[in-house]
Amino acid sequence: MGWAIALHGGAGDIPLSLPAEGRAPREAALRHCLELGVAALKANRPPLDVVELVVRELENSPCFNAGKGSVLTTNGTVEMEACIMDGNTKKCGAVSGLSTVVNAISLARLVMERTPHIYLAFDGAEAFAREQGVETAHSSHFITPENVERLKNAKEAKRVQIDYTEPIKGAIPSSIGDSQIG
Amino acid sequence: TVGCVAVDGHGILASATSTGGLVNKMAGRIGDTPIIGAGTYANSYCAVSATGKGESIIQATVARDVAALMEYKGLSLKEAAAYVIERTPKGNVGLVAVSANGEVTMPFNTTGMFRACATEDGYSEIGIW
C-alpha cells in the first residue's frame, strides 16, 4: 500500500492534430498540478486537502474548462459547479450555478464541513460564499476570448459541446448527427 | 471539467471535481460533478472523478458504479472502471480513479482525456490520447 494520485483536465474529441500551442500549456499545467499533489502527499497532507489543492490549481488555469476559462451558457454567462467527497467518512459537499466564486471546489468543501447539507445551488450558494468570505470576482474574470469563440462556434452549429470538441466550420446542423456531443 | 483523486499511505481516499459544464448549455442546467455518485464518489474502496457529458454520467451513475463493482463483485479498480466505461455510450465519458491499496486507472471512451497520475513506487504518467 502506498500513496497515489490521479487528475484530469477534461475529456472530449481532442483532435490528434492538436497544435503544439494548444498541447504544450495543457501538458505543463497537468505536470505542475501533479507535482503539487505529489509534494502534498509526501508532506503527509490529508487526501482531502490534496484533492482540493490540486483542483483549485486546475480551476485557476485557463487551459481547462472550470474556474478561469469556464465554458459559457447559451446566454454567455458562467455557471460553475463542483463536488468533493471524503472516502473515509463519506461526507461530501457540492455547489452549482456559481457565477462569482473563484474556487468552486473550496466552497463545496465548506458546504460539507460547515452546513448540515450536501448541496447548495445558484443564489443560495452565492449567498453562502459571501457569508463564508471566500474569494469572489466579477464574472468577467472567468470568461476568456477562447471560450467566447467556442460559444460562437457552438451556436452557429446549433449544438452543445463537451470538453475540447473541435468546431465544425460551416457545418449544416442537420448533418452533425448527435448534436448533444458534437 | 477538472478533477483529482488521491489516496495516502494509510488507504484514506478523497475525490474532487469542478466544472463549467457544456459549451452552449441552457442556463440552469445541472451537470455531472455535483451529483454525488455520478461524477464524483469516494468510499473506503476507491475515489473516482469523472468527466465528459454530464447527462450520460448521471444516467450511468459512473462514479458510484465503479465503487459498487469493487464492493459487491470484488472486482479490481481497473476491472471495475473498465467495465463502467465500456457500458457508458461511446464518446461520452472518462474518469480517473485510485483504490485504497494505491492502484491507479484513467480509462475513457472519448477521443482523448487530459490526464496525469503518480504513485509512491515512482510511476508517473501524463497523457492526452
Describe this structure in words.
The complex is a heterodimer of chains A (182) and B (129). Chain A is of the alpha+beta class and 182 residues long. Chain A is built from five helices and four strands. Chain A has helices spanning 20-42, 47-60, 104-114, 122-132, 145-157, and strands spanning 4-12, 80-86, 92-98, 119-121. Chain A has a three-stranded mixed sheet. Mean pLDDT of chain A is 88; it is low at 170-182. Chain B has helices spanning 54-60, 62-73, 77-86; strands at residues 2-7, 13-19, 40-42, 46-52, 93-99, 104-105, 112-119, 124-127. In chain B, a hairpin with a 3-residue loop joins β3 and β4. In chain B, α2 (62-73) packs across α3. The longest helix of chain B has 12 residues, at 62-73. At the A-B interface, β1, α1, α2, β2 and β3 of A face β1, β2, β3, β4 and β5 of B.
What can be said about this structure in brief?
The complex is a heterodimer of chains A (182) and B (129). Chain A is an alpha+beta fold. Chain A is built from 5 helices and 4 strands.
Write the layout of secondary structure elements.
The complex is a heterodimer of chains A (about 180) and B (about 130).
Chain A: E1 4-12, H1 20-42, H2 47-60, E2 80-86, E3 92-98, H3 104-114, E4 119-121, H4 122-132, H5 145-157
Parallel strand pairs in A: 3-4
Antiparallel strand pairs in A: 2-3
Helix pairs in contact in A: 1-2, 2-3
Chain B: E1 2-7, E2 13-19, E3 40-42, E4 46-52, H1 54-60, H2 62-73, H3 77-86, E5 93-99, E6 104-105, E7 112-119, E8 124-127
Antiparallel strand pairs in B: 1-2, 3-4, 4-5, 5-6, 7-8
Helix pairs in contact in B: 2-3
Count of individual helical segments of chain B: 3
Neighbour order of strands in the largest sheet of chain B: 3-4-5-6
Total beta-strand segments of chain B: 8
Structural class of chain B: alpha+beta
Fraction of residues in β-strands of chain B? 25-35%
Mean pLDDT level of chain B: 95
- Compute the CA-based radius of gyration of chain B: 14 Å
Uncertain regions spanning at least 5 consecutive residues of chain A:
170-182
Largest interface: chains, residues each: A-B, 89 and 81 residues
What is the CA–CA distance across the termini of chain B? 16 Å
Give the DSSP E fraction of chain A (strand runs of 2 or more residues).
5-15%
Specify the overall morphology of chain A: globular
